[in-house]
């Protein structure tokens, strides 16, 4: 039941109070707050921020919950009136400079934001949604786009190893400033420093184009009459490793992880339903230390109606140190410049042991700094540097911060004497179950999805039209410091189309924790219990699976076709590569398209092969190698 | 000899070429480039940036050097047309977001920027000067100010322990946004998070006010007719440790180290002559990895004509990893919110030893990240964690970066086996001599100056009207990681007025490296050879000197008056406090104002006292303490 005002009321707080009184008797019914009653009309270019923030404020004041309602149409949001708050967003670039948030949802309970099909257009460096310290928040039926996406597209007119000439879209204002290409839109002025080639037909990253070009360039306008044609020349005696194809699209990207579309922190039961994100200067959705996040029918896709080819500048969705369940269903994730999903924790690095109960630790990756990785009450597991094998657990009683990246942690029990600098701590109180189901991922740079969580993981009935590895399950305490091991993963009923046609990975599915494997005979495996069942693969590269330090790995009842749609990368020489695994099963799979003489090769060390089971008659041959890949 | 154009030429590059031809014969004469010839007129509010940048570009193109000349008057600079470049500025807040530079001096040789008394007015978040990879650059005769300083002033109308009410200056636009006080000027929107109390009479930080208030507040407009009166109430059951005095000034500060006025990197022989800086959102001058920097007649002072009370938001001048000589003469440094000068290196922290030749190290302090602390060819000295005593040296052959804060360093010689995690590396190829002479420092928060460099240091004939310690010579590898030990310091002929009337320090002169002192009998001292001679002190707190781990410390022929102008802080119980020093001399000093019964007390451990010499008859008494202060 909702309450509607029969006549428009200009001052929203008055309206809100009235609605509240009317609704005093109906405890379970939410107040409905309409932005229209706060002077906000669709299809005006004026800044909707003040009115929407006033309406949101009224909705937040309503005890018992409220629904904030939009009329269909287009709403514009500018930074000037957005809320300035210092927030550290994990896996983004941070400083103590405030970010600007349009929807500032803090401390909310039972809030619904219903766009009713509205389209929100952002101008410049703003973050549309902050959802923090809130419970039961739902955002639905709306589209987020940017007036000028902060990631430009140039059509390749000419190219050779010394550079390329592109025509920049007419709706993307830029300058060439002393050899630098500078996007200059809506108060943002960013020099481009990274390039990536996408196919001209909208299918995503150009096959064979490998990763972004990150060379030092000199840009110059060519003098063409449209003023939009720019030649990028290599400098420093560099040569392009690949010459972009005429008619393809070069993305002109500033490698700055700026504003995401949604930033969620310390919130419980947040859902996005029917939300589309056409662009974000950072990621689409980043959630940290949240519990139960659901994304249903989410579309992170380019704005096709404007002929755009790319969506978010970085990952579509990213979850750090979350718990409960991350559920992503019936979504479409297309042409981002990074992964569709990544769920992981953060390894803390031990700097030193102060006494029996205290450790000084740091957050090693700079983009994780400021993230609240641990609080009193959390249970941490110590993992040995190198192997990352577990060495015991304890509960935190106190955290004393020493700046954004360093802290002293006090435990409830004496620390085993053998804690060494560089050992890692995983927060096992904050690990999520994951369901990623009936989604389509296509065309994006990098992987389709990454998962490293010890919760239950179900990846099923998706279509992964991947340019790199489709699924990566890693974990490391050397570079990104993304924890942790998986314990229960089911990958079932998915379709994999031409993974590895661009780069990023060694096999269609990479299970490649960056760990030292214990020397022969020593027990201990990083990941365990991964089942890859009843999937269909259409491959251009014959590398199906890489597995390192996995105990319990089933690859069964899959159908694999080698179709040669694209040239293979040949980064992995054999179909299956096993490094220090145990209890691998390869059964009842169907392979087609392989030259008869080749067969399906499983290459592995003695430990992996001696405990492997496989159905004879699949054409599988095994080949034993030494301690290959051992760090 | 200079070349002048007899008629204005609109397109500067043409003019520059002409000037160049005219001047072809006179190898030692510099071309003169007038901004007026590039359409830039004084006293217009229009953005001078494009014209000035074009003129600067012409000056930079002139082989053999050039002088960029302004007419007297006021010039305005806005961010829109400033050059966007990603630069990591040490001791400031950084991210990969570009900064915006107005004067973009890169790769220059023999450039003079002569303001001829011009006043440069900045709007918003811009950095007026970048000077990088340049040699022989001089900037002179100009004033830098901000249209709206990004640090506000509120006059205290009422105050008690639960909060205070201030009236904000009429020229400082702000908003109160859900309890946060937000400065909102020239495209900047920063929430204030730090407070500091200054005296109402312009004399600087209010005596007894200790450090900034950093409490969680709730701001609300009082409803006063001017709309500029705001009540700040404490929250979280906090009580103000000091109630601000009515009529004093509360500075409303965002603790963000944003744009400095001058950023210099990798440049040689840079001088600023007759430059005034009224404000900067960050520091006044920050130089890193520069050689020979001279500041003559510099004034970092508030804009008195506008009735302003504070100058820069952080240090007036700061030098990191410089060499050659830092010379600061005849300057005035008044009412900054941080130190007048700090000269130091950066300790790198060892993370691990890879092999006989390689170490993985990090830049531990987040505000130093991105700073180029070491390059191939530099000589590093290993210092043991804790004591920071030297353990050997080696030359770097290679630096492989692993992100902004971590790198692998390869040395030319095998590393001693006993390198441990957390040991520190000092770059002894980049240590500067320092001359700080005939300057006046007054009223600023924190210390007057800090020095930690093993070059020759001369601090003479200055007036330190200090609110905390006047001179601090420290060094640590625990918090700020500022290296390193001093080896030759002369502090002579200075006048010290009422240091320690606010806080920040324990004695008028603090020689307080944050090091563990070796246990009794083990040799090793951090600093050495510090002479404090022929100075005059007028004190409100009787703590004259703190010295820790100094070998060779002379305090002679000084005149010290205890005048009781302000209440003492009594942080140090005795006049002289010595911790593990050797060869201390206290001779021919004159003390006055002390109660006859008290005498002058030198408190120290046995090692310090047993090697001390002092002239009898100064009223000095010694008092031995144990291993006090030993970490």
From TrEMBL, chains A, B:
Any Pfam family hit: Beta-barrel_GLAA-B_II
InterPro entries tied to this protein: Beta-barrel_GLAA-B_II, Beta_helix, PbH1, Pectin_lyas_fold, Pectin_lyase_fold/virulence
Boundaries of every GLAA-B beta-barrel domain copy: 359-425
Alphabetized SMART domains for the sequence: PbH1
Catalytic activity field: Hydrolysis of terminal, non-reducing alpha-D-galactose residues in alpha-D-galactosides, including galactose oligosaccharides, galactomannans and galactolipids; Hydrolysis of terminal, non-reducing branched (1->3)-alpha-D-galactosidic residues, producing free D-galactose
Signal peptide range in chain numbering: 1-29
Region Disordered, residue ranges: 612-631
Domain of life: Bacteria
One Gene Ontology term of the molecular function aspect: alpha-galactosidase activity
Protein name: Uncharacterized protein
Basic and acidic residues bias locations: 621-631
Species in which this protein is naturally found: Ereboglobus luteus
Residue ranges of domain Right handed beta helix in the record: 433-606
Keywords, comma-separated and alphabetical: Glycosidase, Hydrolase, Repeat, Signal
